[in-house]
Amino acid sequence: MGKVIFIDVDGTLLDYENKLPASADRAIKETRKNGHRVYICTGRSEVEVYDYIWDIGLDG
Q: By the 8 A CB rule, do 6 and 39 touch?
């Protein structure tokens, strides 16, 4: 049975320069490959969640 994982965006998924570290990208892809679902949990509005964040393959 897979887990559901929620990740904050600012300072967790993205660094303080709004860059997505390659290690975070790899970790999320590996997590999903192992049958888990990954969601972001953020105070950002939908338009502030940039495409490059969604492009890593989040579930929601």
A: yes
